[in-house]
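Record copied across here:
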Amino acid sequence: MPRSAHIPFSAILMIIAAMACFTSLDVSVKYLSQRYPVPLLVWARWSMQALVMAAVLGPTMRWGLVRTRRRKMHVVRGIVLIGSSLSFFSALKFLPLAEATALNYSTPMIVTLMAAAFLHERITIPRWAFVIAGFIGMLLIVRPGSEMLTPASLLALAAAVLYATFQILTRKLAGENSMVLLFFPALVGTLLMSALVPFLHYDTWFPAADIAMFVAIGAIGTLGHFLFILAFQRASVSAIAPFTYMQLLWSTLAGWLVFGPFPDGWTLAGIVLTWYERWRASLPPSEPAAVD
């Protein structure tokens, strides 16, 4: 088997660790959202990433972190991402963790449809099958006419639509410096949320544990993104992508262990179908790669 068919074990560990970081971020947000306004959590998430990147990369890249000839599109992309964060964090406040994560996993299905509509990409028959399977999985989770179809579930779907838009804009910015693509939305989020935070109502006294969790929101999210990037630098997208779906497993277990009941049968079926759709769609048509 050629060397390119192998997946470095370090890349697998990094992507699994990244998914664990994102799940820990969601757990922290869900816990803190019961006591603090969601915009404050969004501010903590993105201001920490902007601060860390500025501290680590600023001395070498300087203004290169924001240097681009397509600044307006970067700003729009940042606003869209912040809208997605606000929607998803709001959904996490009310929805079980596993359900919110699974609904957010409808993003690839939406990206496929948007890419066909706006980027004129061709959708193959297998890809249509995966889109339909993902849609069925989403319906099993929200179940129109049931108590699961709530404003919170619509917020989770809105977050998925906005994140799909973010990904389409990212494709439009192909060729831009990857660090600029990471830093610019964090900077936009920091500026937008910093303007809003002074008008929020919350306790001015923060317990030490809550302060630690606020720091963790930004730090864990930033670490997750860096691990994500490092993993994809060590292996191909098609080889690594199936391992990103570990987040659904982590979210289901964390939601059950930390917050309460295990998903019911219909919801679990929807989660499994959503996971399978994303996992199968990510596999290359050739034989599975070997791990070295």
